Amino acid sequence: MQFTIRKMTEKYAIEVLCWKYERPYDFYNQVLTSHAIMELTGKKYYVVLDRFDVLVGFFCVGAPAQVPAGYPFGAYKETCVDIGLGMKPAFTGRGLGLSFFSAILDFVGECYEKMDIRLTVATFNKRAIRLYEKAGFVEQTKFQSKRAEFITMIKPWVK
């Protein structure tokens, strides 16, 4: 599937904040607030659109992709580009994950050449972890927050 990446807009931010996932992925449900809209429309958030300009997912780069509970565990001590992502619930489980994730990795790789890529994922999210492993990510650091257990995963930069 072909994807286009654009900057997050207020319209897309509102749509993302209204997504509702089924259990156990409801952990990722967000609340629509003016503060949340402001955060998502910051300069580090992007949307992923299909060829019909339908919103398929989003991602962020840098500090917004980090889980603060990981700092005391040294989860973010290495110099990497951090990414966080989410796919629209209607598209999950339909075999689009690898092409969606590859589009994000290609974009990030072009913008942050010669840097390892790191992401943080809740350990219960086995479906996402399998996808990340398939894309070349390896587990790095495990840590606990008040809400869940997380791991960081790193994909080394390759020439």
From TrEMBL:
Checking Pfam families in the record gives: Acetyltransf_1 (PF00583)
Where is the N-acetyltransferase domain positioned along the sequence?
3-158
Q: Please, which domain of life does this record's source organism belong to?
A: Bacteria
Q: Which PROSITE patterns match?
A: GNAT (PS51186)
Signal peptide per UniProt:
none
Molecular-function annotations in GO: acyltransferase activity, transferring groups other than amino-acyl groups
Q: What is the name of the protein in this document?
A: RimJ/RimL family protein N-acetyltransferase
Q: What species is this protein from?
A: Oceanobacillus polygoni
